[in-house]
Design goal:
single chain, about 150 residues, mainly alpha, 6 helices
Length: about 150
């Protein structure tokens, strides 16, 4: 029968922790990039791209509130998050935009997201809140800017 010593267990745990810490920034970066690309497409739909808001290429009227301005905020925020520049502030704003969309557009149609077609708005709101808390992960241009500023001091 094989016995595992405390040293072997500690070594295995330490190796797993080291791997997790090395992989975490990469996973966060992938999460950030995939989410921002999907959200960029969502924002561009407001301008008539990717089938538009009705599936036939219709855009929200220019300057209309909140539709047009929501699309502008969504596109700008998605690009900032995609690049990893001002990621946390952009994620907070986008989380709020999606919460606003959920409570003003979807919630009046029913209590639960399954009833009011608000699942994407609710999910994006929580996803962007998660990005705001965890940060951009690896491969963020904002990190490169901060690194070069520190090197110049």
């Amino acid at each position: 029968m094989t016995t595992i010593t405390r040293t072997q267990t500690t070594t295995a745990t330490t190796s797993t922790t080291k791997l997790t810490e090395r992989v975490r920034p990469i996973v966060l970066a992938l999460f950030r990039v995939v989410t921002s690309v999907l959200f960029l497409i969502h924002g561009l739909a407001g301008f008539g791209f990717f089938g538009g808001i009705d599936g036939h290429g219709a855009a929200v009227p220019f300057g209309s509130f909140p539709g047009f301005w929501a699309s502008v905020i969504e596109v700008v925020g998605a690009v900032l998050i995609l690049l990893g520049v001002a990621t946390r502030p952009a994620a907070i704003v986008l989380s709020g935009v999606m919460a606003y969309a959920y409570f003003t557009v979807h919630a009046p149609m029913g209590l639960l997201p399954m009833q009011n077609m608000g699942e994407p708005a609710a999910l994006y709101s929580w996803i962007f809140l998660t990005i705001a808390v965890t940060g951009p992960g690896a491969f963020a241009l904002g990190r490169l800017k901060r690194s070069s500023a520190k090197a110049g001091q």
